[in-house]
Amino acid sequence: MSSQAVKALLNRQVDAAEHEEIRRLWLAHSLAEDRRDIPGLMATLTEDCVYHMPQTGDIWHGKPGATEFYTGMLAAFPDVHFELVNIVIGPQGVWEEALVTATHTGSWIGYPPSGRPIEMRVAILFPWDRERRLFLGERIHLESDEMLRGDQPTHLRHV
Asked: For residue 153, is pLDDT > 50?
């Protein structure tokens, strides 16, 4: 993103109605994820959305890519649960921090299943598209990808 684009984001004015719209859309997205409702998730995203995990280098493009992201993640972690720890909502979108618990039972993004329960924190940015009134995807920052490798670092707890 160019410095000009970042400055434009910084200069966005806060609008109470837009804030509520972003909050409602994030809530719809979260509830759809809890229900494993892929069409409901896709309804919150732009057609050209991007899902990016900078730590692993994985990127999924468009709604087909987002669908692949979710179907793969939910197959690999069928009991995944997100417990919200922190959230910030602004005219740029939503940032959330969550504690994730799950059992790694299937392969995902090249990581074989460990078969073990995991617990880790993630930080996720949902950039807001002001014109289309939808999210542009997600940037998912893992506390560590070691849990996907099946390692047992001290800062992650394998339950």
From this structure: no
